[in-house]
Amino acid sequence: MLKPGATIGILGGGQLGRMLALAAQQLGLKVHIYSPDKDSCAFDVVRNFTCAAYDDEAALARFAGSVDVITYEFENVPAKTAAFLAKRKPVLPDPHVLEITQDRLIEKNFVSELKIGTAPYASVHSASQLAGGIAKVGLPAVLKTKQFGYDGKGQAKIAKGDDPNAAWRSLKNEPCILEGFIKFEREVSVIAARSHDGQVD
User: Fold this and answer.
1) Helix (H) or strand (E) holding 178
2) Burial class (CB in 10 A: 0-12, 13-18, 19+), 144
3) Can you give the pLDDT at residue 198?
4) CA 158 to CA 23: how far, in whole Å?
5) In the prediction, which pLDDT does 195 show?
6) Are 127 and 178 in contact (CB under 8 A)?
7) 104-180, which class in CATH?
8) Exposed (0-12), middle (13-18) or buried (19+): which is 137, by Cβ within 10 Å?
9) Where in the chain is the domain with CATH 3.40.50.20?
10) 10-residue block means of pLDDT along the chain (201 residues)?
11) Model pLDDT, residue 1
């Protein structure tokens, strides 16, 4: 457990990083933001920040030396960056978790292996695979880039009668996952936190 006055290092300086920093400060914790974006809005609410690339090992090492624990504001931080830092300071969640959650296909496969139901899906790495994916998943469906999509970005809906290849081209032929539509009654968001001793809140 962090004591008041300890410093949390946050990878990413966007809106979520800003909110996380403000919440940490209310608990008496200091925050150091690391982001490659010089216009990061989280920089405005902390005393210490580093503006450097995610692959700048010298800057990352200095950052690790100035904090007690490290986390990230979103899943698009490179897993290699988190793994590099984990050799120097605790990184939570574990970099392996980050590696799973930042790739939609890996994440879907992981959840499926746990026998948890998901929307039907198919891996798409080419136009021919897209046709096969549609045959498996059906239409309507959503084509999503495997990585770096958020808030509706990196997505293209394909309805019956649409040109699937146009959707594929709109995502610049990036590796994708095709997800089928499902009928549902409601959407529920659940957030859980687990401590080192296994307590879940």
Assistant:
1) strand 176-180
2) buried
3) 86
4) 40
5) 81
6) no
7) alpha beta
8) buried
9) 7-101
10) 93 97 97 98 97 98 98 92 98 94 94 95 94 96 89 88 95 94 91 85 80
11) 73
Give the model's pLDDT for residue 21: 98
The tokens describing 134, both together, are 């549609």
- CATH hierarchy code of domain 7-101: 3.40.50.20
pTM for the whole structure? 0.85
**What is the per-residue DSSP string for 21-70?**
HHHHHHTT-EEEEEES-TT-GGGGG-SEEEE--TT-HHHHHHHHHT-SEE
Residues 6+ apart with CB under 8 A from 153: none
Give the pairing of strands 30-35 and 7-11.
parallel
Intervals of CATH 3.30.1490.20 along the chain: 104-180
Report CA-CA distances (Å) from 92 to 8, 84, 157: 11, 13, 34
For position 35, what pLDDT does the model report?
Answer: 98
- Tell me the residue length of the chain: 201
End-to-end, the C-alpha distance of the chain in Å comes to 15
pLDDT value at position 82?
97
